[in-house]
Every structure is written in structure tokens, then in C-alpha cells.
Amino acid sequence: MELVFMTVVLGLTISGRINIATLDLECNETDVRLVDGLTPHDGRVEICFNGLWGSVCDDLWDARDAQVVCRQLGYDGSSTAIQQHPVKSNASLFYYLNNVGCSGDEDRLSECEHNGIGVHKCGVGLTISGRINIATLDLKCNETDVRLVDGRLSNANGRVEICFNGLWGSVCDDLWDARDAQVVCRQLGYVGLSISLRRYPVLTNELSLFYHLDNVYCRGDEDRLSECEH
């Protein structure tokens, strides 16, 4: 089915309030992510090793390291900002990297110099602030990728957006149900049996400028939201 633009009033939300015992987020080796942030572009840096997410210590952390993380996450632009702050040492069960030293032109954080995986004397985490000049920084997206934005509680909570023609756009909540939510969770890398969803009205001026999908109908076994009828 062809993706189209449309004007609607409501957005949709998938809630990440899920039974962790039956749901884990798979990660690919040396991937990075931002967690515990106020926006999708803000948070504490974590990196994946041996299938598990772990924190990065803020010792020696500077703008060049932040630039590499931004590049790896798909942010393209000349303006980045970092903000360091202490967090409780139990913010993550694992600390993987310490004394990270990037030149700034690496494509992945794992390519930068560091003390070695798991070698650290660290009691705090680090934060990259996504409060960046949007005029000079754009988030690239791959066709039909999905993401959750504007979540209030975690990275596993938020309004669903899908990428089309290089632009993120919203998904209307008409006909939205648990099967559609299950497909989004699967596409995002969540695996398990327990999911929940919550829909709520939002003002149109708070949403994306574009709506890409409406009347989504998934069987529940699709791998990507774009494979569902719409």
C-alpha cells in the first residue's frame, strides 16, 4: 500500500508499561542509545556488548565523544551540546566503557580509544543533551522505520511515528489496537508476550507536520508496521 499524507486530529501512543520478565529489548553489538532523558534526543549514554546494555562513564567525556554518539545515532549536523550530571551508581547494572577518547571523526563509539570493555572506576553516568539547534541538526531516518516520541516515562513509551521519504510522520489512531502495537514493538526490537497500549488525544500543533498512516490494520505477525494494511 502507498503511504499518504493526511490531516487528522488524534495521535496514538504505545505504552511501555510492560512485564520485564517476558519482554527484553534486543541489542546489536556496539550499538548505542540514550536512556532516562526528557526527550528522544536526550539521555544517559549506553552501549551494547554481549547482548546487554551498559553505561558509559563520564571520565574525560567531551564534545568529540558526544559528536561520535550523535553520528552513530543518525544525527547529522555541525552543532552538538553535552551536559554531564551525576546519577546513582545503580542507574545500570553494567558499566562497559571509561576514559573514552574520540578524535571526533569515528562512525561508532566503540572505535574510540578507551580503557577496555568493563574496565572502570566509575560511580556516575554521563548525559548527552539533545537540546541542539534544529536548524543545523537533522535526524536521518530509513524508509518505513518506526520510533516512539514524546514519551513521558521511558524510551519504551510514546507516540508512534514512521519514516517516509526521509521524513518522520505520525500514525493516526483510527482502528489502532493491540495487534498493531505488537508489530511496532517487534519492529523496535522488543520481544515477549506482554504488551499494552494507551491512546490519548493531543493537540495538532504538538504533533508532527505530517501524517503518514491511517486506518492501520495488522494481523499481528508482521515484522514491520509498513507491511500492515492501511
Automatic annotation (TrEMBL):
Cellular component GO terms, alphabetically? membrane
Family annotation (SMART domains): SR (SM00202)
Judging by the UniProt lineage, the source's domain of life is: Eukaryota
- Give the range the annotation lists for the signal sequence: 1-15
**Protein name listed in UniProt:** Scavenger receptor cysteine-rich domain superfamily protein
Q: Tell where it localizes.
A: Membrane
- Annotated source species: Geodia barretti (Barrett's horny sponge)
Q: Which InterPro entries match?
A: SJ_maturation_regulator, SRCR, SRCR-like_dom_sf
Q: What is its main location?
A: membrane
- Pfam (any one): SRCR
Q: Which GO terms describe its biological process?
A: cell-cell junction maintenance
Keyword presence, Repeat: yes
